[in-house]
Amino acid sequence: MHDICTTPGGGLPRLLAIMDRLRDPDRGCPWDIEQDFASIAPYTIEEAYEVADAIARGAWDELEGELGDLLLQVVYHARMGAEDGRFDFHTIADRVAQKMVDRHPHIWGDGNRDKSAAQQVVDWEAVKAKERAGDGARRTLDGVALGLPALMRAVKLQNRAARVGFDWPETMQVLDKVQEEATELVEAKERLTRREVEEEMGDLLFVIANLARHLKVDPEAALRAANAKFVRRFEQIEDALAADGRTPAQSDLAEMDGLWDAAKSREKETK
Description:
This protein is mainly alpha-helical. The protein contains 12 helices and no strands. One of its GO terms (biological process) is dTTP catabolic process. Keywords: Hydrolase.
């Protein structure tokens, strides 16, 4: 008997059938049956980051698999939605398809296609604002997802506020605020409670995100790159010490700082 679940080449229908089987109350997998939206959500976020990581590393041989893992998350949520009578994979796909058509009147409407990418972004945001109003969002900052990474959400909140004129006009004004917040934090850290220090640190990070926005830099991407650079250079420190039969714990800051500078110089030479 033909079973689409075990037949290669079935594409999306095969994946949907597999999820149906996994969630079947009588024949499914006990672990999969027990899951709900809340328990699956962390995996969805993790898989999205793994897609981004593969792209950042240029790991194109891994990307197909990572995209498949992310697609599985959508299929999982779609199946649970169907069980509750809320939505299914096909209504999800149709809804986003309609959204793309509605947001591109210059492609599927009478909009003018002869405009810059920047103007298209402005028009896109205008359409989104109209959609939010239709969904009941009334305040400027309504609808910015709470589950976003904090730096990403900060930029989105700032972009929303900037659209109604609440923004510094000059980048140097943002830089002045960065310096002000950093100075206040350092000067007050000894007399502040731990909670107050955390609040001041949050203010500083929020302004740093605003500085990135003014410089047209994605702070999440910039920090990921900085993390990768730190790992790369620190591993060179470890390699240099290992060649001498030692570990970082058997070194000191002055030596490791010198090895860091050497690693930094080598990177610059190879650019």
